[in-house]
From TrEMBL:
Annotated protein name in UniProt: CN hydrolase domain-containing protein
CN hydrolase domain: residues covered: 5-254
Record keywords, A-Z: Hydrolase
GO biological process: asparagine metabolic process; glutamine metabolic process; oxaloacetate metabolic process
Organism: Paramecium tetraurelia
InterPro entries found in the cross-reference section: C-N_Hydrolase, C-N_Hydrolase_sf, Nit1/2_C-N_Hydrolase, UPF0012_CS
Pfam families with a match to the protein in the record: CN_hydrolase
Superkingdom of this protein's organism: Eukaryota
GO molecular function: omega-amidase activity
Length: 281
């Protein structure tokens, strides 16, 4: 297992067409790879505006290799540069849609994860969103064991559920990655706080990666908070950005992660005689 390497968070611009969006993403991944990144994390549904009609149009069927514009491109770039790439896209499966994360390494699809906690919230006058009108929910967590360590994948709203992160930690994860797309109401208050909370509670490297903010004047298009961020297991921010398209890169070190876990050994100090988290899958 490689212990020291660079991770990149790719905050991409979303455009009105998938082809144009993907061309921009490709350039950013290339830039990250040229700078030595071995793992690239993309945002939530990064090939699409977060609007039902476009999500439907841009959805892909994971089963149909060769007909999947986004997945085939990601697989190809991952192979070309010998890197691992994680992100989420809208998935079409029969008559259902899922918000689904993928992890490609060297061109191979290692795992898919369907978002389990859907973003249905109502803050009157600020933001009302019902993701369950577009997507069905997944029914399991996913961990992927790679040459770069073990990665637990959550998508956006999933970060509000520490139980999911705790299970991933208990199953040996070194990294918690959250492709996400917070908004202008909850983003400023909760995004960095939640990323820091997951890092400090479970002593993992944590990446929260958003798409860039839509800056046009179509009111129906969701405005993402942006602020993709990478944190270490002490919850120190290693790299971050604002809302423009950005590539942020930092080195991670799994020996340092072990040191943190030894110095503050919370995972061995849980009082399972008083409380316990039960994993049902
Ligand atoms: O939890 C939040 O405030 C935002 C979540 C979100 O935007 C999402 O899950 O897509």
């Amino acid at each position: 297992m490689l212990k020291k390497f660079k991770i990149a968070c790719i905050q991409n611009a979303i455009t009105a067409t998938k082809t144009q969006t993907l061309a921009l993403v490709k350039d950013q991944i290339k830039e990250a790879a040229i700078q030595g990144s071995k793992v690239c994390i993309l945002g939530e549904c990064f090939n699409s505006y977060y609007v039902k009609a476009q999500l439907q149009n841009n959805a892909e069927d994971f089963g149909k290799t060769g007909e999947r514009q986004t997945l085939d491109l990601i697989s190809e770039i991952s192979k070309q540069f010998g890197i691992m790439i994680i992100g989420s896209i809208p998935e079409k499966s029969g008559d259902k849609m899922y918000n689904t994360a993928f992890c490609f390494n060297n061109g191979q699809l290692l795992v898919t994860y369907r978002k389990t906690h859907l973003f249905d919230i109502d803050i009157p006058g600020k933001i009302t969103y019902k993701e369950s009108l577009t997507f069905s929910a997944g029914d399991n967590y996913k961990i992927v064991d790679t040459e770069y360590g073990k990665f637990g994948i959550g998508i956006c709203y999933d970060i509000r559920f520490p139980e999911l992160a705790q299970i991933m930690r208990e199953k040996g994860c070194h990294f918690l990655v959250y492709p996400g797309s917070f908004n202008l109401t909850t983003g400023p208050l909760h995004w960095e706080l939640l990323l820091k909370a997951r890092a400090v509670d479970y002593q993992c490297y944590v990446a929260g990666v958003s798409s860039a903010r839509y800056m046009g004047n179509d009111e129906s298009i969701y405005k993402a908070w942006g602020h993709s961020t990478l944190l270490d297991p002490m919850a120190k921010v290693l790299a971050t950005c604002e809302h423009d398209p950005s590539v942020i890169i930092s080195e991670v070190d799994l020996d340092y992660l072990e040191q943190v876990r030894q110095q503050i050994p919370v995972s061995q100090q849980r009082r399972n005689d008083i409380y316990e988290l039960i994993c049902k899958k």
